[in-house]
């Protein structure tokens, strides 16, 4: 390897670009929300104090900063609505992730084992839902699930049920919506992991006496671990904070943090409380990511 | 002779319109080191995959210890395979790779540990049990693959180009190791190779294959000295093909354009067109005296011998190996001698 050399200005700019992007459009808004979360709720526009002005002197900034408080976070801890929303969100996301994994795995396996010339088409089909608006696809589920929707009508026509099933506006409908919407995010990393596997590994396992089930459990599944983890994170993380699906398909009893946040922002105008909840959500979601990163680093250490 | 361990009878296999195997019949004895030799695309790998159970023949039977294997899945066959790519499990360490087959068979933890330890020692990998596969060199991977395939004590070990991925020096060393391990384990080895030197060096018997058919099955010496067909003669070792007509009057000889060469006529009729295959080292080279006259057109020093290209007729050049120490120059006139039995007479191929 060559000795470390100084990077040219052009190279620095190229490397800096994504960091600047993240800084401007992700980190800065996050800081704003963090600041609001330690402000006081007031009846005004915007509904929080203090507000920093460009004309503020240093002393004024210091005086305003003195009014920061963690009341919103304390309220978060004591308000069971938030706690329940978090738990319910995590549960719904976890169940949805598990179901998506169970559905996507055989799919991905079939795609990876399909004749090579068919694979690009199968990937295209897996990504096909993205060609239609996400919102429209979720609305379509209303038409399917509601009391006089397609599914109930079909079941009634077949005489399997006499009264419509309550499917729409339930937590179950939210799970269905999440699994449906996020399935491609599970499918594609799984496919990528399975497609990479050398088929001779499966033959070697069979040759050494492993039945097809054992080949799957001992070789195919462990070797697809990275794909499973990547897919699970890609489904779980956005699902926890999902707002549109519970809002459209969920019932009044379906608690999800995204909705609770929305209510606090737009109905209660309690911006500090909602901001604190958002910051807490980010912290909660960092945990699985950090665990994964740690496992990955430990793996790499093993390799040395 | 007792019943062979492996018996292949009339096996044919097609992939679409491509004939991979055509009416192949072979026997492999217990404890034998057998080689399937042929150029790429000759069907040797397909035959091996049929024995392992990864392909099923369209016709014919393969039986092991007199048990017909058709319909028996690979995981129930007492045959293990060492893959050309080694196909080691990257998520398991060396120890667990070797233990894989043993764990499928069941058996106590102690028995498995002992057996793996035995194989690690046999393949000089004792210090590497806990290594990950991607931390091994090519030669070490090759030994893990061998140990893994041998661990469940298969009745037969199939080796698909086991030395192809190794560099030249390591290959020779590994040949001796393979032979030694085969002798120690008393297991039948069936090796697939396109490398004639490897087949000659390792095998007790060799089947030379071409285009889905077996051309000859014999020991290495016989394959080399008495090739059954022109293809075998040309594929295994270097040779001269001398075309002519058989003359059975008196001492049988092949009458070629440049002279009479004594030969064993076999059952070919008098006057038949035939080809004589003569290895370069079987041709005697002298400066004068009896023999067929020619002149040295070119030569290549090979260490032990010097390979001469000797023009004996306007468009016939023979290759002859001169012993070490004899010096020849381009343009030298020489005499070529063909001792009786030097070549193998091959009938005209139809």
TL;DR of this structure?
The complex is a heterodimer of chains A (304) and B (350). By secondary structure, chain A is mainly alpha-helical.
What is the global morphology of chain A?
globular
Number of helices, where a helix is a run of at least 4 consecutive DSSP H or I residues of chain A: 14
Structural class by helix and strand composition of chain A: mainly alpha
Total number of β-strand segments of chain A? 2
Residue-averaged pLDDT of chain B: 92
Q: Roughly how many Å apart are the termini of chain B?
A: 35 Å
Radius of gyration of chain B: 24 Å
Low-confidence stretches of chain A: none
Largest interface: which pair? A-B, 21 and 28 residues
Poorly predicted tracts of residues of chain B: none
Protein architecture, described:
The complex is a heterodimer of chains A (304) and B (350). Chain A is an all-alpha fold and 304 residues long. Chain A has helices at residues 9-37, 58-65, 71-78, 80-113, 119-127, 134-145, 150-157, 171-196, 199-207, 212-223, 225-240, 244-249, 257-267, 271-303, and strands spanning 40-41, 48-49. Chain A has a single domain (78-303), classed as MetI-like fold, CATH 1.10.3720. In chain A, strand 1 (40-41) and strand 2 form a beta hairpin. In chain A, helix 1 (9-37) packs across helix 14 (271-303) and helix 4 runs parallel beside helix 8 (171-196). The longest helix of chain A is centred in the first third of the chain and has 34 residues, at 80-113. The radius of gyration of chain A is 25 Å and the shape is globular. The model of chain A has no long low-confidence stretch (mean pLDDT 90). Chain B has 2 domains: 6-233, Rossmann fold (3-Layer(aba) Sandwich); 238-347, OB fold (Dihydrolipoamide Acetyltransferase, E2P), CATH 2.40.50.140. Chain B is 24% helix and 35% strand. Chain B has helices at residues 44-52, 94-105, 109-122, 138-150, 168-185, 196-202, 220-225, 230-235, and strands at residues 6-15, 18-28, 33-37, 59-64, 67-68, 79-82, 156-160, 188-193, 205-210, 213-218, 240-247, 253-256, 259-262, 273-278, 284-286, 292-301, 305-313, 316-323, 333-337, 343-347. In chain B, strands 6-7-8-3-9-10 form a 6-stranded mixed sheet, with helices on both faces. Chain B has a 5-stranded antiparallel sheet with strand order 13-12-11-14-20. The mean pLDDT of chain B is 92. Chain A binds chain B through residues 198, 200-201, 203-212, 214, 218-219, 222-223, 225, 302-303, and chain B through 52-54, 73-77, 79-81, 83, 85, 87-91, 100-101, 104-105, 132, 134-135, 148-149, 152.
């Amino acid at each position: 390897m060559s000795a470390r050399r100084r990077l040219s200005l052009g190279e620095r700019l190229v490397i800096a670009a994504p960091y600047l992007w993240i800084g401007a459009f992700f980190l800065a808004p996050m800081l704003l929300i963090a600041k609001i979360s330690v402000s006081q709720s007031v009846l005004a526009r915007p509904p929080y104090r203090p507000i920093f002005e460009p004309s503020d002197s240093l002393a004024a900034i210091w005086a305003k900063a003195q009014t920061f408080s963690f009341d919103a976070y304390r309220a978060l801890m004591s308000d069971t609505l938030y706690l329940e929303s978090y738990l319910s969100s995590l549960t719904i996301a976890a169940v949805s992730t598990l179901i998506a994994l169970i559905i996507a795995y055989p799919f991905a396996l079939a795609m990876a084992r399909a004749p090579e010339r068919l694979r690009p088409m199968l990937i295209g089909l897996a990504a096909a839902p993205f060609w239609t608006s996400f919102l429209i696809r979720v609305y379509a589920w209303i038409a399917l699930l509601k009391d006089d929707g397609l599914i109930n009508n079909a079941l009634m026509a077949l005489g399997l049920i006499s009264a419509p099933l309550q499917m729409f506006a339930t937590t179950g409908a939210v799970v269905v919506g999440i699994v449906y919407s996020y399935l491609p995010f599970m499918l594609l990393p799984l496919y990528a992991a399975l497609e990479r596997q050398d088929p001779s590994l499966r033959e070697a396992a069979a040759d050494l006496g492993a039945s097809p089930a054992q080949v799957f459990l001992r070789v195919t599944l462990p070797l697809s671990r990275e794909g499973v983890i990547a897919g699970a994170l890609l489904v779980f993380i956005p699902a926890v904070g999902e707002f549109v699906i519970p809002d459209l398909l969920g019932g009044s009893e379906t608690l999800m943090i995204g909705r609770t946040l929305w209510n606090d922002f737009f109905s209660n105008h309690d911006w500090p409380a909602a901001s604190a909840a958002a910051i807490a959500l980010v912290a909660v979601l960092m945990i699985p990511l950090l665990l994964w990163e740690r496992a990955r680093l430990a793996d790499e250490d093993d390799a040395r | 002779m007792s019943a062979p361990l492996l018996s292949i009878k009339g096996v044919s296999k097609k992939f679409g319109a491509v004939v991979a195997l055509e009416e192949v019949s072979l026997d492999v004895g217990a404890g034998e080191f057998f080689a399937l030799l042929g150029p790429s695309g000759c069907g040797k790998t397909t035959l091996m995959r049929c024995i392992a159970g990864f392909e099923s023949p369209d016709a014919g039977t393969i039986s092991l210890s007199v048990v017909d294997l058709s319909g028996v899945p690979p995981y129930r066959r007492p045959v293990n395979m060492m893959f050309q790519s080694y196909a080691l499990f990257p998520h398991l360490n060396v120890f667990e790779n070797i233990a894989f087959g043993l764990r499928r068979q069941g058996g106590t933890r102690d028995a498995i540990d002992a057996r793996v330890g035995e194989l690690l020692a046999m393949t000089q990998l004792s210090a590497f049990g806990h290594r990950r596969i991607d931390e091994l060199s090519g030669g070490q991977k090759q030994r893990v693959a061998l140990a893994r395939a041998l661990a469940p004590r298969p009745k037969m070990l199939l080796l698909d180009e086991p030395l192809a991925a190794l560099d030249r020096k390591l290959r020779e060393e590994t040949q001796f190791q393979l032979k030694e391990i085969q002798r120690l384990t008393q297991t039948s080895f069936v090796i697939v190779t396109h490398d004639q030197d490897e087949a000659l060096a390792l095998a007790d018997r060799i089947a030379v294959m071409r285009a889905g058919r077996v051309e000859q099955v014999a020991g290495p010496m016989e394959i080399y000295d008495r090739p059954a067909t022109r293809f075998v003669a040309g594929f295994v070792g270097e040779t001269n093909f001398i075309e002519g007509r058989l003359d059975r009057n008196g001492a049988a000889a092949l009458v070629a354009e440049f002279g009479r060469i004594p030969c064993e006529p076999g059952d070919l009729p008098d006057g038949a067109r035939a080809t004589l295959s003569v290895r370069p080292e079987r041709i005697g080279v002298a400066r004068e005296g009896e023999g067929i006259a020619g002149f040295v057109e070119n030569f290549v020093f090979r260490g032990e011998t010097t390979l001469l290209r000797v023009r004996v007729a306007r468009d016939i050049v023979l290759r002859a190996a001169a012993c070490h120490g004899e010096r020849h120059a381009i343009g030298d006139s020489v005499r070529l001698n063909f001792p009786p039995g030097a070549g193998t007479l091959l009938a005209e191929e139809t």
